[in-house]
Amino acid sequence: MPVLTRFLGDSPLRTLLKLIVISFIVGLVMSAFGWSPWDVVYGVRNFFLDIWHLGFHAFGRFADYMLLGAVIVVPVFLLIRIINYRQ
Fold first, then answer.
1. Taking the model in full, what pTM does it have?
2. Distance between CA 10 and CA 37 in Å, rounded?
């Protein structure tokens, strides 16, 4: 079995014919929904950008909570250390 046929899973001509038929069907469906290839590209791009921004937003919220807690915890810690140091 030739390497190309093994890689494609069928003969190159049959694989090409299958790809043409499937591309035509997918094109019909996309046209019915009013989608363009750029809509798909931008959709994938926006998906990864949203994940990226959500990740950094989560880090920002974590830092906000940490600073909010530190405003109370650090002075109390220092006060307790000063009081215990005198004893």
1. 0.51
2. 28
